[in-house]
Design goal:
This protein is an alpha+beta fold. The strands form 8 sheets. It has a 6-stranded mixed sheet. Strands 3-11-10-9-14 form a 5-stranded antiparallel sheet.
Length: 406
């Protein structure tokens, strides 16, 4: 079962990671299997209840874990974002980070002198093994990963837990600890690394594309303090991984070694240092908003409703974007808003302006813009830059023409 696979009846709340945790805890789990049936395996359905004791093997294969370091995530957009980095509030309302910093084993042995295939490790409360580099292994950018294997029957649920990220999906928290024997002077220097020496990029997840903007850097010392500065603004930052559990894992592993329960093992083969992490090849060109946007019809907040109505008729549009003297977004007015204002005998444009405007960026994929329109049941998005200056507008009919022409 995959840790991120979601429940059919409780999606976004319960998933494969929770099933794994329940089995580790000794709970009963209902199993339903469906097959097409063959001469040697004629049954097409099976329903039963199992525990971990009923399983011949109950093995955890974790293909990517223990990131050497990871980015700090924040959100410049006007919307709440639900991501694998947690809930990101609008306009840099918060930031999140992951990793243990100076306690991270890959950061303490960045050249993998002691870590590789066959290295015995602490895994989920028992002993496991490194079986190779993990997916997305990128040592050149200090973002190495490992692939690990362990016996779930021996694991402790204190160190392996199913989790759900609100409105994003399910996952599995896995506790990992790796002993690093001091073999030479170079390793002494490496394991002396401190949080203030480890910098991570601050990445804007508010831009919905694969290559997201980097807004600066922060050290793990700053991240663990609970506050960082982004564009001269102090932003609260919180960890996604438990620093308390990381320390407990380190202490537990230390005691196992001292008591002779855990023996160090040299790697059969060290992790590679020359791996290049490449993004997925895409055979279809991505169309960005700037290719579809048209000039926006604009007005000022102090204009008369009648004048705005004339603009709607003159330019045959349904949306007029409200801007200030600098051309920055202040709101939006639709033909429906004008109709309602006339019906309700409203006189001031300021009374009918929609202030909370869903927007798009010029370098945003059209697919992401279309998703916003669907989610919010709207038919157009003002296109703005980082200074919130209006660059244009993209409408649902433009997107429909693009999709229909493919």
């Amino acid at each position: 079962i995959g840790a991120t696979q979601m429940s059919e009846t409780r999606p976004f709340e319960y998933g494969g990671g929770h099933v794994i945790e329940d089995l580790i805890r000794g709970k009963e789990v209902e199993l339903r299997a469906i097959a097409y049936g063959t001469a040697c395996y004629p049954r097409t359905k099976l329903e039963t209840v199992i525990t971990k004791d009923d399983l011949n093997q109950f093995i955890l294969l974790n293909f990517r874990n223990c990131y050497q370091r990871y980015v700090c995530a924040t959100n410049s957009s006007d919307e709440i974002l639900y991501t694998y980095m947690g809930k990101l509030l609008p306009r840099f309302g918060n930031a999140t980070f992951s990793g243990a910093g100076e306690l991270n084993p890959l950061m303490n042995d960045p050249d993998y002198e002691t870590i590789g295939i066959g290295t015995r490790i602490f895994l989920g409360g028992t002993q496991g093994y490194v079986i190779g580099e993990g997916t997305q292994h990128d040592p050149g950018n200090l973002m190495g990963t490992i692939m690990v294997r362990g016996d779930c029957k021996k694991m402790n649920p204190e160190f392996i837990r199913g989790a759900a990220f609100t409105k994003y999906g399910t996952t599995l928290y896995v506790g990992i600890g790796i002993p690093i024997p001091i073999l030479n002077e170079g390793l002494v220097k490496k394991v002396a690394i401190r949080d203030e020496d480890i910098l991570v990029p601050i990445v804007d997840y508010g831009v919905p594309r694969r290559e997201r903007p980097k807004l600066g850097k922060a050290s793990y010392k700053e991240l663990k303090s609970g506050k960082i500065v982004i564009n001269d603004k102090t932003v609260k930052v919180s960890p996604l991984s438990s620093l308390e559990k990381a320390r407990k894992i380190a202490e537990t592993l230390k005691s196992w070694i001292e008591e002779g329960i855990f023996y160090l093992s040299a790697p059969v083969e060290r992790l590679p240092l020359n791996t290049v992490f490449k993004p997925m090849k895409q055979s279809e060109d991505i169309v960005f908003v700037e290719a579809l946007m048209r000039p926006a019809v604009t007005c000022r907040e102090d204009e008369e409703i009648e004048d705005v109505a004339k603009k709607i008729v003159t330019y045959s549009v349904n949306h007029v974007v409200v801007v200030d003297v600098q051309g920055k977004l202040k709101g939006i007015v639709t033909s429906w808003d004008i109709t309602r204002a006339v019906a309700e005998n409203r006189k001031s444009l300021a009374d009918i302006i929609v202030r909370k405007v869903i927007t798009a960026a010029p370098d945003e994929p059209v697919e992401a813009a279309a998703r916003k329109m669907t989610q919010h049941n709207i038919s157009a998005l003002p296109v703005i830059n980082r200074e919130r200056k209006v660059l244009g507008i993209v409408a649902s009919e433009d997107v429909a023409k693009l999709i229909g022409g493919r």
